């Protein structure tokens, strides 16, 4: 399949560096800005719950591990893992829908 967007997983993995500007300068600043804006739109379109957003923030921005998040939120690590996975899956689905729509418009 043709990829029109950078993988949301790759963006999530580099989100802290992109936001802090501490990333490798070999990467393109403009492309990172575009990726971040697109990601923020996908985040809104994914209709995540407050808890999903909070866990995504704690995991990818604050760089806490799942056990630390579970302790803070007074829940179990498997529950944090499930919520995190569902949140990432919802964001990925937004990207897939956008790509499908854009590819259909091209044909």
Automatic annotation (TrEMBL):
Name any one GO molecular function.
DNA binding
- The source's superkingdom equals Bacteria
Q: Which Pfam families match?
A: Sigma70_r4
Q: Which Gene3D superfamilies match?
A: 1.20.140.160
GO terms in the biological process aspect are:
DNA-templated transcription initiation
* Matches recorded under CDD domains: Sigma70_r4
SUPFAM superfamilies documented for this protein:
Sigma3 and sigma4 domains of RNA polymerase sigma factors
Residue intervals of the RNA polymerase sigma-70 region domain = 47-92
The entry's protein name is Sigma-70 family RNA polymerase sigma factor
Tell me what organism the protein belongs to.
Answer: Listeria booriae
